[in-house]
Amino acid sequence: MERAAQGADGGGGSNSSSRSSSRATSAGSSPSCSLAGRGVSSRSAVAGFGGGGSRSSPGSVAASPSGGGGRRREPALEGVLSKYTNLLQGWQNRYFVLDFEAGILQYFVNEQSKHQKPRGALSLSGAIVSLSDEAPHMLVVYSANGEMYKLRAADAKEKQFWVTQLRACAKYHMETSSKMMNQVEGQQKNLVHAIESLPGSGPLTALDQDLLLLKATSAATLSCLGECLHLLQQSVQQVGQPSHKPGASENILGWHGPKSHSTEQLKNGTLGSLPSASANITWAILPNSAEDEQSLPPEPEPNSGPELVLSEDEKSDTEDKEETELGVMEDQRSIILHLISQLKLGMDLTKVVLPTFILEKRSLLEMYADFMAHPDLLLAITAGATPEERVICFVEYYLTAFHEGRKGALAKKPYNPIIGETFHCSWEVPKDRVKPKRTSPHSPAGHEQLTAEDPSKSYKLRFVAEQVSHHPPISCFYCECKEKRLCVNTHVWTKSKFMGMSVGVSMIGEGVLRLLEHGEEYVFTLPSAYARSILTIPWVELGGKVSISCAKTGYSATVIFHTKPFYGGKVHRVTAEVKHNPTNTIVCKAHGEWNGTLEFTYNSGETRVIDTTTLPVYPKKIRPLEKQGPMESRNLWQEVTRYLRLGDIDAATEQKRRPEEKQRVEEQKQENLHTPWQPKYFIQEGDGWVYFNPLWKAH
Question: Which stretches make up the PH domain (predicted)?
């Protein structure tokens, strides 16, 4: 629609010197009536417009809300505003019509064409109308669907008149939506009550699969609608902030927590049974905060400390990384529907035991290691000649790290690590491969697997991860390269929440990249993960705003993982901006897909495209199972993995149950002895965790 409008705007519409008027009209109504009840003021404004000396005079804002003949009629505000089209055509006068009753702002080439098809239209329900100092007398209308109109009025008086009425229209339709939500909530509650009142046996029971699916879908839809409404309400409230300028992430794309009226009822359990999607959580980024009741490891040795992991024992990883798609098989569907039918609203999701067939054949701790599959880009950060180049290199590495760790689009869930579980591996990176991305040759076509033939000509990057806490579930990982004097220390715990047809998982915590040669520390956060379409075939996306900052150099970066809009739009989008804060200078921008192509634009005007699907992958080196300890991830879960590969779900479930049951017994023993758990490799410092022998303390 906007594209068509821009094409039309390039034609012979009215220009900035044309005479125009802005007025509110209503058929068959008294000019003295007003919309005071709606918060829309009746006023006049006369001023020159666009420097052309033309008049812009809002006439009577007419029409009684009750209507002269018993029929409700609402006026339409209409008149000329200048609309920004594009860089080439700039600002052009267009004739705008505000239909208050329909809640739509339309525009036409000129007044004579207003009875034809509009050139463009915006729905104002939940829209943000804000002032802007980008141009004189400018206002911006942000629609809830992501569209935006940049408009200019004749003067400040005219601008305020339009802003007042546009905001009043948006507020009215928001309140109407709230009333409708209350009605929908009551109807959904009646539906759930009717289903649960059915007998336990007979031709139609409360456990009928179609009824379970209906109950699940209705609750999920209600929750999504409630969150949409809450986000729209937040947007309207933000309009009152004088300096508010909505950014790329301030639209309907995100999830801001269950705070709307409808979802508060869901949270408090006032709508009956919850067909919770947590019973079908199948994401591959993060697990639920605790998949089962997992406890302490079996009989740890007294005063057991860090174990020496010999690098000469490590071999290149040959594990099959392919995952078969879940699909929607009938027996699996029955298990999931039966499970979600047993859950009640407000139930602690950490108590839910997930079916084994949704599991991915690796632990969460190993998944963190897989995010390091491009160690050449990580080590190249230290090769940057300036602080600016180093922070840009880190952003390039950060944006390319998620693709390989995700292992494609399949929505499966890694094993939840049990407390005391560890994972060790390393990478050998040829020294001639470690150089800043901006100066390195183009990536080879295809997904190249690289190995170092001569260890003396390679850098060694070591990695260790450990599950240090059960409640909350905290994972820590540390990696270092002594030759490059670089290390990363990260702690993160996951928190999941039900979002209707999706499950969102927040990654709480932070990581710190230290470049000891330069004395720089880069603090970074991690995005959230979302499992979408959980009642059909799940898929995963990342979302949220993350930050990267270096206090010493004053450089910072903001990275936004955009979730897919409700209507249209691309999936897996990401944008980033690198800034030098002391001078407020943007030195680099990036956009693209985190699992596809990324384009970087530098302040020099240079651009570079990185295709994450063709970046060389360095296989991690790991010791064979016979040389691993009993609490190392692959050894710990080897039988579960074996039976999953064979497709024997029952045997995999039994193998998964045994260590978990043993842990429950051990946990009870620890509680009786009042003995706190002591991790092997990480020490708690304040709210965070650090490696026991980090590189910055050893040097």
Answer: 74-171
Q: How far is CA 591 from the centre of its chain?
A: 15
Is residue 425 a contact partner of residue 314, using CB atoms and an 8 Å limit? yes
Torsion of CA 559, 561, 562, 563, to 10 degrees: -160
Contact assessment for residue 657 and residue 441, using Cβ atoms and an 8 Å cutoff: no
From CA 256, how far away is CA 68, in angstroms rounded? Answer: 44
Q: What is the pLDDT of residues 283-295, one digit of tens each?
A: 333 333 333 334 3
CA pseudo-torsion sign 299, 303, 305, 308: negative
Nearest Cα residue to 392 out of 521, 545, 555 = 555
Three-state DSSP state, 690:
strand
CB atoms within 10 A of CB 587: 18
Rg (CA), the chain: 30
Burial class (CB in 10 A: 0-12, 13-18, 19+), 27: exposed
* Cis status of the peptide bond prior to 527, with omega within 30 of 0: no
For residue 264, give both structure tokens. 């508060």
> What is the mean predicted confidence (pLDDT) over 312-337?
58
Q: 359 vs 105, which has greater pLDDT?
A: 105
Q: What is the pLDDT of residue 286?
A: 33
Selection from 14, 99, 23 nearest residue 57 by Cα: 23
Instruction: Grade residue 435 by pLDDT with cuts at 50, 70 and 90.
Output: confident
Mean pLDDT of 179-193: 84
Q: How many CB atoms lie within 10 A of CB 537?
A: 14
Cβ burial of 531 (10 Å; 0-12, 13-18, 19+) is buried
In whole angstroms, give the CA distance from residue 443 to residue 375.
Answer: 14
Q: Which of 506, 537, 470 is nearest to 286 (CA)?
A: 506
Residue 300: C-alpha distances to residues 305, 539, 666, 678 (Å): 10, 39, 10, 10
Instruction: Using pLDDT thresholds of 50, 70 and 90, give the confidence band for residue 38.
Output: very low
List residues bridging with 574 in a β-sheet.
561, 592
Burial of 297 (0-12, 13-18, 19+ CB in 10 A): buried
Residue showing tokens 């900052």:
549
**pLDDT-derived band at 234, boundaries 50, 70, 90:** low
Contact 139, 132 (CB under 8 A): yes
More confidently predicted of 305 and 563: 563
Report which DSSP code applies to 524. E
Q: How far apart are CA 150 and CA 353, in angstroms?
A: 51
Instruction: Kindly report the pTM of this predicted structure.
Output: 0.60
pLDDT confidence tier of residue 219, bands split at 50, 70 and 90 = confident
Helix (H), strand (E), coil (C) string for 227-251: HHHHHHHHHHHHCCCCCCCCCCCCC
245 has pLDDT over 60: no
